Amino acid sequence: MSTTVAGLSSAGRNKPGKRVLPGFALSLGVSLLFISLILILPITGLIVQTSGMSMAEYWAVISDERVVASYKVTLWAAAIASLFNGVVGLLLAWVLVRYEFWGKRIVDALMDLPFALPTAVAGITLAALFSEGGWYGEYLAALGIEVAFTPLGIVVAMAFTSLPFVVRTVQPVLEDLAPEDEEAAVSMGASDWTVFRRILFPSLWPALMTGIALSFTRSLGEFGAVIFIAGNMPYVSEITSLMIFIRLQEFDYAAASAIASVVLMASLVLLLAINLWQARYLRRLHGR
Question: pTM of the predicted model, to two decimals?
Answer without folding.
Answer: 0.81
